[in-house]
Amino acid sequence: MHRTVSICRGNQITVLETTGSVARLNELSEEHAGDCLLVSTEAPRSQSWSETMSGDVEIAVSLPVSAVCGTVLVKEIGVALASLVLCPTLEIEVLLSPQVRANRPAFRNVATPVEDLVVRTTIIKPDRVRWVADTKVLSTWALVSGEDADLLPELAPNVPGDESEWLRDQLQNLPLRQLLQPKCSSADFLALQAGLWQVHDFLDESHQCSQQIEGEGADRNGDYWHAIMHRREPDYDNSKYWFRRVGQHPVFASLPAVARQALSECSDPQAAKWADRLCPANRWDAFAFVDLCQAVRRSEDSPLGLAARRIQWAEMLLLLVHSYRCVVGTR
Questions:
Q1: Burial profile 9-33: b = 16 or more Cβ within 10 angstroms, e = fewer
Q2: Are residues 195 and 123 in the same domain?
Q3: Measured between alpha carbons, how far is 16 from 5 in angstroms, rounded to an integer?
Q4: In terms of residue numbers, what domain contains 83?
Q5: pTM
Q6: What total number of domains does the chain contain?
Q7: Are residues 318 and 193 part of one domain?
Q8: What is the 3-state secondary structure (H, E, C) of 274-291?
Q9: Residue 311 shares a structural domain with residue 174
Q10: Alpha helices, H only, 181-251
Q11: What 8-state DSSP symbol labels residue 11?
């Protein structure tokens, strides 16, 4: 991915160059004493950065207007965990202060060096990172736009490749107990870990966590992650077995609105029928969603497949936040 590197002076932004080289990113950040802005979009958006970088802030992350899911995650679970699970469609802008570049090289030679830097900094020094939203969030669980759905996690993903090793390393070494200081059962804690692995397609690691807590914990969150894992494996009958074990889950209450919105924006002629199957009497039918995922297994990039991926992403975010609340005692 190419990144635009710019220099900021208050509200003035001067574009230097566009580069995909990690070595060049480090060179550019070392050459300039001022604040350095990196974006994954073609050009930086208009943004007032002077107040954002006041005090001890080392990194500022600007979320685009459509990124309400990311904004809510930051508010719900804090910057350290939110940085790990931000929607992959987010074309974020990252502003670096000279403090960050004092510890050279800032960027590691990984697939997504900017994201890696944000994650590393937020985990080590969460109070030094500021997240800036371009809009007030009114809808807590607003969907990722349909235009971006093809970049969302797949319904039946492949095993993550070498490009995700940096993320595997971060998740394996995440000081989660230190970050959260949980006052909960070990089952709730493992359910949250299962969710963190699951949203990044590490199905085996997620499975190892959920298998340890079968039938345990608040609202059986681990069993819910277990059911999602088998749905994505894909082993649809096994997924339905675990959804029967889950029973009615608090997350289900939010899913009918999510599904109806995603399917109302879908051009597939079967979308309305699927909406009625998923949400009979405005209740969530987890088994019907398993059937939908199976129906579009070989056509995930079709309009109906992309709608299912939008629903799945919202479902995982809802369950992740619920699992987090159970850990920190705000359920």
A1: eeeebeeeeebeebeebbebbeebe
A2: no
A3: 6
A4: 3-140
A5: 0.91
A6: 2
A7: yes
A8: HHHHHCHHHCCCHHHHHH
A9: yes
A10: 186-198, 203-211, 221-232, 236-246
A11: T
Cα 186 to Cα 213: distance, rounded to the nearest angstrom: 8
Name residue 19's beta-bridge partners.
Answer: 3
Tallying the residues shown for the chain, one arrives at: 331
Shortest CA distance to 25 belongs to which of 40, 44, 13?
A: 40
CB-based contacts of 297: which residues, under 8 Å, 6+ apart?
Answer: 155, 156, 234
Element counts in the chain: helices (H) and strands (E)? 14, 6
pLDDT in tens, 180-239: 887 778 999 999 999 999 999 999 999 999 999 999 998 999 999 999 999 999 999 999
Domain match, 130 and 206 both: no
- The type of residue at 185 is S
How far is residue 251's CA from residue 321's CA, in Å, rounded to a whole number? 10
Residues 121 and 160 in one domain: no
Of 92, 122, 140, the residue that ends a domain is: 140
Residue with tokens 């574009």: 15
Summarize pLDDT for 115-158 with one digit per residue, the tens.
Answer: 888 899 889 888 888 887 655 554 455 677 777 788 889 999 99
